[in-house]
């Protein structure tokens, strides 16, 4: 069988994966705190008919050899944790991390997840929770009679109560970072979980030890660039079509062989 049939098929499969990644990026262009992904590929094994450097005659060696590649495969889908642009909301419970870091939230199963989505709200107990009701860790409880909420760049949360205009501290927001954020496992719902590749979570005060400061009244937009994704989509589409042309050409070559008399 002509190897180009299977080789081109791996190219089509790789570009389908590439298109799936691009489609997910474009679908989440308006998702708060979303981080775009990038498909990365590597070539497959080579069929070696002559080793490079093999002896080809008296005092002569082959300068290049003869190797035929057998296709491509998806090696990784890399998360890009570049910071997205800030979006002003003026909501006192909206918080953006201006730099590195993640908000730790407690999931329903008791595990701690990590998110860049700072669109917090209050639950019936007054706790700061994300849009899925997962409480921020450590818990910050907003008093029922709070008149105003202030979140400092360092993460200190203060409220004004009644006629007392002096802000009263009620808690401290801590954020977490990882040695290799790209190794985090995306769980959906804007939540990531640590893995053996990401390293252990390192918790700290915003603005210290390389962690970003907090900005109240704004959130982080998706870091997807629509123009870049459109260019990538066109490139993937053309590569897919070209690989399909290779299969058609290979099929015509096989037809020519079958028609030999």
Quick description:
The protein is of the alpha+beta class. It contains two helices and 21 strands.
Strand order of the largest sheet: 13-14-15
**SSE class:** alpha+beta
Q: Count of helical segments?
A: 2
Shape: elongated
Count of all domains = 2
What is the typical, i.e. mean, pLDDT?
92
Share of helical residues? 10-25%
Number of strands: 21
Strand portion, in percent?
Answer: 25-35%
* Span of the ends, CA to CA: 19 Å
Q: SSE string, helix = H, strand = E?
A: HEEEEEEEEEEEEEEEEEEEEEH
Please describe the biggest sheet, giving its number of strands, its sense, and whether it closes into a barrel.
3 strands, antiparallel
Radius of gyration: 27 Å
Q: What does it look like?
A:
The protein has helices at 3-27, 226-258; strands spanning 37-43, 46-50, 55-57, 60-61, 66-69, 72-79, 86-88, 95-98, 103-106, 112-115, 121-122, 128-129, 146-151, 156-161, 164-172, 175-177, 185-188, 191-193, 202-204, 213-216, 218-220. By secondary structure, the protein is of the alpha+beta class. The protein folds into two domains: 3-80 and 224-258, no CATH class; 86-220, no CATH class. β3 and β4 (60-61) form a beta hairpin. The model has no long low-confidence stretch (mean pLDDT 92).
Set down the secondary structure blueprint.
Elements: H1 3-27, E1 37-43, E2 46-50, E3 55-57, E4 60-61, E5 66-69, E6 72-79, E7 86-88, E8 95-98, E9 103-106, E10 112-115, E11 121-122, E12 128-129, E13 146-151, E14 156-161, E15 164-172, E16 175-177, E17 185-188, E18 191-193, E19 202-204, E20 213-216, E21 218-220, H2 226-258
Antiparallel strand pairs: 1-6, 2-5, 3-4, 7-21, 8-20, 9-10, 11-12, 13-14, 14-15, 16-19, 17-18
């Amino acid at each position: 069988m002509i190897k180009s049939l299977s080789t081109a098929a791996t190219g089509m499969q790789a570009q389908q994966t590439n298109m799936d990644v691009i489609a997910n990026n474009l679908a989440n262009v308006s998702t708060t705190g979303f981080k775009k992904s990038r498909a990365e590929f590597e070539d497959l094994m080579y069929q070696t008919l002559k080793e490079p450097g093999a002896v080809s005659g008296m005092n002569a060696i082959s300068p290049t050899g003869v190797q035929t590649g057998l296709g491509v495969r998806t090696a990784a889908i890399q998360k890009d944790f570049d910071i997205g642009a800030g979006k002003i909301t003026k909501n006192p419970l909206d918080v953006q991390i201006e730099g590195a870091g993640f908000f730790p939230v407690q999931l329903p199963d008791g595990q701690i997840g990590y998110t860049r989505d700072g669109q917090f709200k209050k639950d019936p107990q007054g706790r700061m929770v994300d849009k899925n009701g997962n409480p921020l860790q450590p818990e910050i409880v907003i008093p029922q009679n709070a008149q105003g909420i202030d979140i400092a760049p360092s993460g200190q949360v203060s409220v004004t109560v009644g006629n007392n205009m002096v802000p009263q501290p009620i808690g401290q927001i801590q954020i977490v970072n990882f040695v290799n954020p790209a190794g985090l496992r995306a769980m959906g719902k804007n939540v990531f979980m640590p893995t053996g590749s990401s390293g252990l979570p390192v918790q700290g005060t915003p603005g210290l030890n390389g962690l970003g400061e907090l900005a109240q009244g704004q959130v982080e937009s998706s870091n997807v660039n629509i123009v870049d994704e459109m260019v990538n989509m066109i490139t993937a589409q053309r590569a897919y079509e070209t690989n399909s042309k290779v299969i058609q050409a290979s099929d015509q070559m096989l037809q020519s062989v079958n028609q030999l008399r």
